[in-house]
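Appendix B. Raw example, untouched.
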Amino acid sequence: NVMTYKEVNMQMTLKEQIGQLFMPAAFINDTEEEIQKLERLIKDYGVGSLCFFHSRASAATNYEGKKEIVFNENSFETLKQLITRYQKVSKHPLLISIDAEWGLAMRIENTPQYPYAITLGAIQKNDDLIFEVGQAIAKDCKAAGIHWNLAPCVDINNNPNNPVIGYRSFGENKDEVAQKALAFVKGTESEGVLTSIKHFPGHGDTATDSHLGLPLIEKSKDELIANELYPFQKIIDEGVDSVMVGHLSVPSLANSSTTSSSISKEIIKGVLRTEMGYKGVVISDALNMHAVSKNHPEKGELEWLAFDAGNDVLCFVRS
């Protein structure tokens, strides 16, 4: 008999239920010492999910350190072996995620790379092709043992000085972004792989990389509803597995110029849940990103703020 998630959850201890909220980073090219450390974390605390990255050196917050990224032509096989290994030590099946916006190649050598979102956005009147791209990436994810593709971006590419979105966006037209992102979502879901639209409430009109600092968006609420929030609302209305909340300062939504959207009750519980009617899973953007992590050095403080604000999954928690 296949148990429902609710039935499984009822059989968990409180400690195990809390563990399900946490999504630590897992690195494909890691030391045996670090791999064993993550195994103990999974076993001892009932961690619910993992997000895979290529290596510690390639993590975006290490850009300043300019660490050398080692090329490993066998990363895909290593990934599969690690997923099997981590699943074996987990009492409950782990939910495995990765950023595969343009395929596993975003993180893994010698895997298929598909067109960037900006290229897909240039396709005229043939969203079936975008559906097929989402479908193909989902098949690649399943072959690796990955359940959740943290994609697509539904940020609108409306700031030429944006250092982090750019080609990750489907374009600058809100209707096209919504329509093409939805085709990608439906293609992914057709293969039984989960998706996540990001970076709520919209990382397009920024000139700061949230990996490194907290971007400020000074638009009025009406302007945001008319543009940045539009693709999110359209896709939420159609149904989507999860929404990823970005690290953005949006005073008109949060009533604060210093609070990141990822830890704002006003934005997550107020705008996303109540005003936009979203009832699915909310996942934080990576909590190691300097937009938020540098302001909360004490371990556990940021994670609590993110959970209390309304995030269901805490991505890249610090262990």
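End of appendix B.
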